[in-house]
Design goal:
Protein name: Transposase
Helix content: 40-55%
Distance between the termini: 73 Å
Number of helices: 16
Strand content: 15-25%
Order of helices and strands: HHHHHEEEEHHHEHHEEEHEEEEHHHHH
InterPro entries: IS701-like, IS701-like_DDE_dom, RNaseH-like_sf
Largest sheet: 10 strands, mixed
Number of strands: 12
Shape: globular
Radius of gyration: 24 Å
Amino acid sequence: MAAAYRVDAQRWSELFETLMDTIEARFARPESRRRVRDFVAGLLAPLPVKNCWTIAEHAGDGGPGGMQDLIGRAGWDDAAVRADVREFVTARLGHPDGILVVDETGDLKKGVHTVGVQRQYSGTAGKIENCQLAVHLSYASPLGHTLLDVALYLPKSWSEDPARRAEAGVPDAVAFATKPQLARRLIETAVAGGLPCRWVAGDEAYGGDPQLAAALRSHRLGYVLAVACSHRAPTGLGVQRADQIAAGLPKQAWQRLSAGTGAKGFRYYDWAFIALPLAADAHRGHHSVLIRRNRTTGELAFYRCWSPEPVALQHLVAVAGRRWSIEESFQATKTGLGLDQHQHRRWRAWHRWTTLVIAAHAFLAAATTVNTETPDGLIAITVNELRRLFHALVIDPVRRVADVIAWSIYRRRHQDQAKASHYARQALTEP
């Protein structure tokens, strides 16, 4: 029984040190090098809320100022750190059949001062809300999957407002870009950085953009991109909507295939594949429409596909199924690593917080590959389970009573100062 519960915490620790040693090289000052390690460890900790205060307390600092400085004022390049994370992922999870997945996620906000916030549709909320949106790039391979890169969506209400830009510290070089344009930049950065990948997957927001699809073909990247039922494709019967194509298919055109494994079994759907030889362009390759039908409800989903070489239907189905890996990554980073718990309004601080969350998630994804053998009766160690084990076995600090009391005093003193300030301000306007 003891063997069934054996984990290699030492190798987890070595892997963490490898990643952090690389990241720390981006920091000139020794204080920042120590703090970034403590910050990532705090993100991995089971704190009820993650912010600079709680992470500083977890690290044993005397106050939150050091962590706030790391995120807001210290000199370091978050894009360079994400490049380090990409190289780490390439070494640990890289595979020739790797899949790049693009999707956006929203953080609900109150007020109008947080960079990028406005009333806009949020898939997280399922409706129009006051929120930020960010386009994320994730990497999925047979070895695992992780978030990889990010771009904050800056609406025109922000990009065309110099005063708001200046207040939030938006760099002058940042102009308005659509979500598909942001996704293209992220993908091209990953490809230029040497990340091994063969496919790209995304939802309708990206499948409906012909410029993104053309860019992927120019890089010889196959894609399985969701499209709307109104998407039009050239067929032997003329240009038809995707739902018209589906309506004209014979019964024998559908095949029952699994889009991958899930917690409750294989994810079986009915699938149909329609080749589109008339869609050939300068990039050559093979165009097609892929249609998925829910076996219970009959609901249809449509995908526009392209590959440099012919591929089997099962392969396209597998790529379509891997798109959901980014949703798992969003859930893991929001519930366990504080992706949406930042309290930063400015451009630089937002990107730094998100970058370090991505680094923490990449470490966890890579560490799950360390224990390659899973005993009978247990599932493989997940990212969430590894986070719990790693904190308990490797980074849990020995807390002194004096530290706990010192932080209680610090919080209460800060709250007293804030209270006095509020009363003094009120006294200037109230009788």
